[in-house]
Design brief:
Elements lengths: L10 H10 L5 H7 L17 H27 L1 H4 L7 H10 L14 H8 L8 H16 L14 H20 L13 E2 L2 E2 L3 H20 L2 H18 L8
Antiparallel strand pairs: 1-2
């Protein structure tokens, strides 16, 4: 296996091989590999810390929340889906699923993160605002996790990046509630329709994402530092009412 193709190999195998590639460790590797098939233990977990395993759960949950948000938003805004002839909710979900890392789509000019979210609130934008919003949100969250669908021992996260993403989700909810078109109607319908508050599921989902991002920041950083930077981000957004670029 000395000629390992690192570009094609599964990342966990590459990491494990690098650890055990020395002759002194080959016997240990031989003893460990059979354990991967026992008791449901996965081989890739040999290359994960406890924090990596916890982070994987946060990644899975945030991605699941974004998919759930897609369904809710299109239920409330079928007119947005109709802007792309032949498109379905299942088609949108498939587009998000097939891209495991970055979310880049020609119809959005390959914009991601806060650029795509801002597009959703542009009064002159004629495309699907819901898709722009979920791509922006989903890709920003992926950026906060270094665009990784799962974490391994060499991977690290930045608490400030995670906190900034949480602040941006709070600002997203503010914009959804307060941004209206020329006729006074919401650009994207969420909790209120024709003056009646009749749906709180979207607010719940976004609130859950905020909590997840803040909890993850606490895990990877000192809690005092988190409190200070979080206050700074909050103060900036109260004044600007704008999304903050992730500090990467």
């Amino acid at each position: 296996m000395t000629g390992v193709n690192y570009e094609k190999a599964r990342p966990e195998l590459v990491i494990i091989w690098r650890w055990f590639s020395g002759g002194r460790s080959l016997l240990m590797l031989t003893l460990l590999l059979p354990l991967a098939g026992c008791g449901g233990y996965e081989l890739k977990n040999l290359a994960k810390s406890d924090t990596n395993l916890v982070t994987d759960q946060f990644i899975d949950k945030t991605r699941s929340n974004v998919r759930e948000l897609v369904v809710m938003l299109y239920e409330r805004n079928p007119d947005q889906l109709a802007r792309i002839p032949g498109m379905t909710v299942e088609g949108r979900l498939a587009q998000l699923k097939v891209h495991r890392y970055k979310l880049q789509f020609p119809e959005l000019g390959y914009q991601q993160g806060i650029d795509a979210m801002n597009l959703a609130f542009d009064p002159d934008y004629a495309g699907d605002r819901v898709f722009a919003l979920v791509v922006g949100l989903g890709s920003m969250l992926r950026q906060a996790y270094a665009y990784q669908p799962e974490m391994f021992l060499p991977d690290t996260l930045d608490a400030e990046v995670l906190l900034t993403s949480a602040s941006n989700v709070e600002m997203l909810w503010w914009k959804l509630k307060n941004t209206r078109g020329p006729g006074g109607q919401h650009l994207i319908v969420t909790y209120e329709h024709r003056g009646v508050v009749d749906h709180l599921g979207i607010e719940r989902l976004l609130g859950e994402i905020v909590v997840l991002q803040e909890m993850m920041a606490q895990i990877v950083s000192d809690s005092r530092h988190r409190a200070v930077t979080g206050a700074v981000h909050g103060a900036v957004q109260v004044v600007s009412k704008a999304f903050i670029p992730l500090p990467i």
